[in-house]
Amino acid sequence: MSDDETTESGSKGRSYALIVSDNETNQVALEDILTTAGFEVASAPAERLLGMHDLIPPRLVILDDAQDLAARKELQKSLMRHKPLIGVPLLLLSRDSDMDSFSAAIADGAAAYLKKPVEPNELVDLAKRLVDWTGGGEWTEKRRRVRRPLILNVQINFRESGRRIPGKILDASSGGCRVEVPEAIAAGDKVQVVLQDQEGSDTFLALGAEVRWHDPLEHVHEIGLRFTGTTALLAGKILGFTPMDAT
């Protein structure tokens, strides 16, 4: 990518994604997947990108990572603090699937986490959801002040019956989250939101919550959850909210 591609006057379209990768093979493969799906795409190595201060803000940053956990944390933080990228959702691609890597990325503000090699359809679905979340509109601007995009596959455990169903967190605040589920769940139900590592092992984080509302859509259902108990004190940190965010 030339510097002109990301610093030209004017603005990109609402599906503009920026790939950060030091691996040319991975960069080209990701560009092909996203451009085929209709995205406008630019890409650059991390060091060069962090030196650009007049680049056009993208709708999504995709970090193709190949570093150890400590180096990745620093790079992620540097990207999210880089002025043109502040507030832009970051999708992290990593070969690490352990809970430490996964939870650290989310706690440091990543909007989604995919284990490599990525499945193209899953990548495109996540990218579209994150771009849609950052779309314009007054309601979205209000939402962005207290919530952040967070796309995570989770398991919903019903406390009383012990039944389990799959779910997908769509966005979150320090006090709760919005979740897509395959069936209706009544307001007032007590559940656990289980975040598992990328291998689906016995290592997990469980957040206690109560269903506040339910919205039946055409093919799925959305529920609003409020974190409860000790989870209400820990969820902000686990999901990447600072004390200032929670006020």
Question: Could you walk me through the main structural features you see in this protein, from its secondary elements to its overall organization?
Answer:
The chain is α/β, with parallel strands linked by helices and 247 residues long. It folds into two domains: 3-135, 3-Layer(aba) Sandwich (Rossmann fold); 139-238, Thrombin, subunit H, CATH 2.40.10. The protein has helices spanning 3-7, 24-36, 46-50, 69-81, 99-107, 120-133, 138-146, 231-238; strands spanning 16-20, 40-44, 60-64, 90-94, 112-115, 148-158, 164-172, 176-181, 190-196, 204-216, 221-227. Strands 6-7-8-11-10-9 form a six-stranded antiparallel barrel. A five-stranded parallel beta sheet has the order 2-1-3-4-5, with helices on both faces. A hairpin with a 5-residue loop joins strand 6 (148-158) and strand 7 (164-172). The protein is globular.
Termini distance?
40 Å
Biggest β-sheet, characterized? 6 strands, antiparallel, barrel
Strand content is: 25-35%
Return the average pLDDT rounded to an integer.
Answer: 86
Return the domain count.
Answer: 2
- Please report the number of helical segments: 8
CATH-assigned homologous superfamily of the largest domain = Response regulator
Question: pLDDT below 50 for ≥5 consecutive residues: which ranges?
Answer: 243-247
CATH architecture of the largest domain: 3-Layer(aba) Sandwich
- Shape by Cα distribution: globular
Give descriptors for this structure.
11 strands; 2 domains; six-stranded antiparallel β-barrel; Thrombin, subunit H; disordered C terminus; globular; 247 residues; Rossmann fold; alpha/beta
